[in-house]
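Query form — protein Sterigmatocystin biosynthesis peroxidase stcC

QUESTION: What is the three-dimensional structure of this chain?
INPUT:
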Amino acid sequence: MRVSFLSFALFTAAVLGQDAAHQWQPAGANDLRSPCPLLNSLANHGYLPRTGRNISVDALIEGMHAGLNLREDAKLFFRLQGNKALTASSTGDAQTFHLSDLITHDLIEHDASLSRADIHFGDNWSFNQTIFDETKSYWPADLISISDAAKALVARQKTAKAVNPEFNLPLDGYTNSLGQTAMYLGLFGDYEDGNARTDWVVYFFENERLPFELGWARRSDDDKIPATGILALTTKVAVHYLAAKIGL
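ANSWER: The structure tokens for Sterigmatocystin biosynthesis peroxidase stcC are given below.
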């Protein structure tokens, strides 16, 4: 019986893909979080500091790699993104940032988020179920296609523009929107065709938690996350986005 129980425990751990150090925990009252569900999820799993405080770019890349498995070009890609965070640092150390520093408008946060309110309404960092309900209404199938993801993006921008008298989405905001969409499509699907599992994506956004319990796993060393794949998928999202904008 002891052998059977041990075998079951080992099997369960393998399926969930988590070790004891990276079990999910919600943010505590004094922990800091960002408008980015991925970074928040990595902090909630302990791949980034659970406090959300004093994060160096090296720690950012190490945490993303530990949780997701990045190819070397992706490490460089995210390092460049991480350097942006340092420009908004409030830590007192120019080489570190708090996750809450990313609340800075138009850094990575922008109007017409898939899951956050615009800065005009005050809280531009907390998950907003009403906004996300609109987003996921454009994902009717078990898999999210690039086309459906692009339609959700267009719809959110249309709604945000209609309700926010100070709506503003500069070029960087559009670019970030496309890249963020490509990121969740690739992370929970593939970097060729998207087709992210809808249940994984919804679970991820609503819980700020990697969907290990639903069968998702960190990528293998033979299938690391590539920067080239992210950029190629972003281009495909852009094409479908433009098609959705003009009603094709």
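ADDITIONAL NOTE: Residues 17-245 form a domain with the Chloroperoxidase fold (CATH 1.10.489.10).
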